[in-house]
Amino acid sequence: MGKRIDMISFDGVVARNFSAIARTHEWIKHVSLFGARYLIFIFALGAMLWVWNRSQEQERFLRLFELGLSGCISWGTTLLISYSIGRLRPYQTFHFEPLFRPLIETPSFPSGHATIAFAIAGTIFFHDRLAGIICMGVALLVGCSRIGIGVHYPTDIFAGAVVGLVVAWGMHVLIG
C-alpha cells in the first residue's frame, strides 16, 4: 500500500510542478496550449495523408481503415476505463485554474488524447519503423502538453500510451 501512495504522490507532484512551470514560462505555456488543443488534429490529418501517400493504391483504404479503427477502438476503451475509475483531473484535485479546460469533462485516467495519439503512432510504426518513432515523439508531445495545461497526470499519459499501442498492435495483427 505504501508504494501505491508514493506513486500517487509522485504523480501529483509532477503534474502540479509541470503545470506551474507552463503557467509561468510564456513559451512553454504556448507550446503546451498548442500541443494540448491543436496538435492531435494536425497529427491525425498528417497521419492520414502519410498513409495515403505511402500505401500502394490497392492498400490505401485498408490502411486508412486500420488507422481509423485503431483510433476509435482505443478512444472507446479509454472512455470505458475512465468512467470505471473516475479519477479527478489535477486542477480539480489541487484546486488551480488550468491553462485550458477540456471541452467535455471526462475523468482523467487514462488520457484520451494520449491514447489516440499513441494509437496513431503505433499504427504508423507497424508499417514504417522510422516514421513510427517520429510519430511516437509527436504523441509524447501531445501527452506532455496535456500535463502542462493541468488536465492530466503522468500516469494518465502512460496508461493512454499503453492502451493506444496495444489497440494499434491488435488492429495490425487483425488487419495489417
From TrEMBL:
<feature type="domain" description="Phosphatidic acid phosphatase type 2/haloperoxidase">
    <location>
        <begin position="62"/>
        <end position="172"/>
    </location>
</feature>
<dbReference type="InterPro" id="IPR000326">
    <property type="entry name" value="PAP2/HPO"/>
</dbReference>
<feature type="transmembrane region" description="Helical">
    <location>
        <begin position="157"/>
        <end position="175"/>
    </location>
</feature>
<keyword id="KW-0812">Transmembrane</keyword>
<protein>
    <recommendedName>
        <fullName>Phosphatidic acid phosphatase type 2/haloperoxidase domain-containing protein</fullName>
    </recommendedName>
</protein>
<feature type="transmembrane region" description="Helical">
    <location>
        <begin position="34"/>
        <end position="52"/>
    </location>
</feature>
<feature type="transmembrane region" description="Helical">
    <location>
        <begin position="64"/>
        <end position="86"/>
    </location>
</feature>
<dbReference type="Pfam" id="PF01569">
    <property type="entry name" value="PAP2"/>
</dbReference>
<keyword id="KW-0472">Membrane</keyword>
<dbReference type="InterPro" id="IPR036938">
    <property type="entry name" value="PAP2/HPO_sf"/>
</dbReference>
<feature type="transmembrane region" description="Helical">
    <location>
        <begin position="133"/>
        <end position="151"/>
    </location>
</feature>
<keyword id="KW-1133">Transmembrane helix</keyword>
